[in-house]
């Protein structure tokens, strides 16, 4: 395969047995699990998963790698040649009845973000997602309020999932080594989301609230065109000082603010 295509597909294969073991231990494959593996590559993770899980569906975009894995004859392994971003998860899972459905993978970093947005849209389908991401992206998903990495993505994912940052994986654990560090994180579906919200509208609000991180939250929200008097009323109601920066607010403070401003601005428009 041409190097440029391998690079486009993010082909960095895990070669460190200690790291592979740690990843498998974090996934905890069980006989009652259906595991969907994204980008199995040469099968470094797939084979230890097949040894313990009820069933593994491995989805690989690279035709040659998929064909070579298809030759491995395990009754509980299905290898599909497909682009994970185009897979219809609902159809794939409609006839499956498992105690847990886990979505896992050492992902090509270029698909991290679109994949996660799909998962948010179809969050009911997976009990747990365990991914190896670029370190900075992993940190952002798991970030807590008051830290530099805390961002709209952290808030949206933490509303639906309990997120955990497990460990860092250095570049020399892969062949060829990527230029960046990686990290393993898990997203475990909450029984009930922390708040019932319309995700897309809330994300739009969050993006505005965090648009200029050096500015105060108040100055960012003024740009959404909330009337200043309404903003002052909201900040006072929730005990938020005007000088606060967006990353200093907890998830519940941001949700309270969003819901209050949304309700009140509707009344201003349609009294
Ligand atoms: N799991 C293997 C390992 O850990 O050694 C390979 C990981 S490598 C970082 C990413 C794998 O995902 C490659 O095998 C690549 O061909 C595959 N891939 C890239 N884009 C994909 C996509 N959109 N859908 C499915 N597989 C993809």
Layout: helices, strands, pairs:
Layout: H1 3-8, E1 13-14, H2 17-27, E2 33-38, H3 46-52, E3 55-60, H4 63-70, E4 77-81, H5 89-93, E5 100-106, H6 112-121, E6 128-134, H7 135-142, H8 152-160, E7 161-169, E8 174-175, E9 182-189, H9 199-209, H10 217-222, H11 228-237, H12 251-269
Parallel strand pairs: 2-3, 2-5, 3-4, 5-6
Antiparallel strand pairs: 1-8, 6-9, 7-9
Helix pairs in contact: 11-12
The hetero molecules present are: S-adenosylmethionine
**Major beta sheet, strand line-up:** 4-3-2-5-6-9-7
Tell me the number of strands: 9
Radius of gyration: 21 Å
Decide which structural class fits the backbone: alpha/beta
Main sheet record: 7 strands, mixed
Name the average pLDDT.
Answer: 93
Share in helix: 40-55%
Low-confidence stretches: none
* End-to-end Cα distance: 64 Å
Task: List SSEs in N-to-C order.
Answer: HEHEHEHEHEHEHHEEEHHHH
**Proportion of residues in β-strands:** 15-25%
Annotation field: number of helices: 12
Shape annotation: elongated
Describe what you observe in this structure:
- This protein is 41% helix and 19% strand.
- The chain is α/β, with parallel strands linked by helices.
- It has a seven-stranded mixed sheet with strand order 4-3-2-5-6-9-7.
- α3 links the parallel β2 and β3.
- α11 runs antiparallel to α12 (251-269).
- The longest helix has 19 residues, at 251-269.
- The site of S-adenosylmethionine (SAM) has 24 residues, from β1 and β3.
Compact description:
With 271 residues, the chain is an alpha/beta fold.
